[in-house]
Amino acid sequence: MKNAETPVFKLVLFGAQSSLGSALMVELLSRQHEVTAVVDDLNRHAPRPGLHFKLGGLGDADQAEQGAAGGSAVIALLSALAPGDLAAQGRMSEALVAGLSRTTIRRVLLVGDFDVLDAPGKYTEEERECVDQVVDALQRSPLHWTLINAPQALMDLERMAAGMADMLELDLHRGEHLNFVT
Fold first, then answer.
1. Which domain holds residue 20?
2. What's the pLDDT tens digit per position in 130-172?
3. Domains in the chain: how many in total?
4. Domain-embedded: residue 5
5. Packing angle of the helix pair 19-30, 157-170 (nearest 10 deg)
């Protein structure tokens, strides 16, 4: 039973099929938030109370806008949607920023391969430019964003999911780039 005094987020989750996506859904639902997972196949998912599914993706601004419609915040697991492909993650980020600019949604968490911001020497000029364009677009947008480095293989995903839920509930780390450490 939901407590009427507790604010409820309507989270839209891109990349729900990943391990982190599953951990996020469990954490957010346990906190009595509503979750809409944007997926490419509705038949692969079992229903749960508070969990909804919608067809879509981050192919362009229209698709991003339609996927996010009805939400109060968005989490995009870019590294799950395009693992190791900074150019694709950049295009998805740009589509999401453009799509969200047409909505009332202002809070967004982007999880991607943003390590390039911490160690630019390990990346090519093209990879650095992709991430720089994402940061520039976010800084010019009205969004309240947080960039999060993709989790490492041995990371405790449940704790990361709890930390991300805390960020949303407490409105922490706006305009920041974060690493989760265990």
1. 10-178
2. 999 999 999 999 999 999 999 988 889 999 999 999 999 999 9
3. 1
4. no
5. 50
